[in-house]
Amino acid sequence: MVFGAASFVLGLIVGSFLNVVIHRVPYGTFFSAGRRSHCPHCDVAIAWYDNLPLISWLVLCGKGRCCGQKISARYPAVEVLTGIAFFLIALRHESSLFSGASIDSTRAAWSLFDFWLVGSLIAASAIDIQHRILPDVINFIGIGVGFVAALVVPEAHAGGWLASTAELQPSGLALLNASLGCVLGAGSLYLVGVLGKVVYRTEAMGLGDVKFMAFTGAFIGPDGVLTALLVACVVGAVVGLISTIRTGDPLIPFGPFLAIGVLVGRFWRDDMGRILTEEWPRWVQGSRWGLPVMGGMSLLSLGALFLLRRRRRRRDHDESNFPPAADGQADS
Ligand SMILES: [Zn+2]
Q1: How many domains does the chain have?
Q2: What does the pLDDT look like over 198-219, one tens digit per residue?
Q3: Has residue 102 been placed in a domain?
Q4: Distance 296 CA to ligand 1 centre (A)
Q5: Distance between Cα 119 and ligand 1 center (Å)
Q6: How many CA atoms lie within 13 A of 286 on its CB side?
Q7: Could you tell me the sign of the dihedral formed by the alpha carbons of 43, 49, 55, 59, in that order?
Q8: Is 276 a member of any domain?
């Protein structure tokens, strides 16, 4: 319980830091804007006791002490989301983390790398929702951390397709798995982009998505990448369809769906593999609904490709018509 609670609090603190990342990185002012946080409305420096994760937002009832303007609910939302995510990661590793009174250092490092991956996914998704970009700095640092993780915790890459086909040392397997995940992640999204270009004769995919999958692929390997792409396309197509019907606007950022897919690829890869290769084929053969559902899912995948195209075109449109906003206007 203490360990879980500590992870949740750590998540709140990291989430508070992620808010700074989300707020500053798209404008390239992460370091130049100074260490202190400022009110986005009146630019007054925020005191430390008004800048506590979640607590300050609750105490201040979501309004700034300086000027009384509303503080975006995004701040506590990102903090609580990160807190819950860290709590769940801690729960997952808890059983093998403590051996008696001592802590298993490999498992501890493994938890930290999972914290890093999930924190990056949350920041990248929030930035993609707000700005329609997946920033290079998260992607490139992520690729580096992903390979370090493969070196330090090769256990995270155990199992999967590569382990069953090649006789390798754990460290070699982990490095190869990370490299293949990196290349397959970037390559497959690049291919979707090229395909979209041929089919629709317009730019279909941003390079941000390609680099994002290179980063996450280094963490989850080729099996994870395939799982992630499948989940991202299906969930993205369903949500995109609903949002199109509700708002008439098929514009959705694809990053958050890739992030959901990466989560499944990281934490439920084996379950997904079992469902896709064993339970799903058995169900399709044994049920009269098998073929219609397969057809529906093919249509959904085509729909996902269409949504990708729309997203890219709208983004170009936005960039050509509106100059980038100055720092501090992110929430207006
Ligand atoms: Zn203010």
Answers
A1: 1
A2: 766 656 567 888 999 999 999 9
A3: no
A4: 50
A5: 27
A6: 6
A7: negative
A8: yes
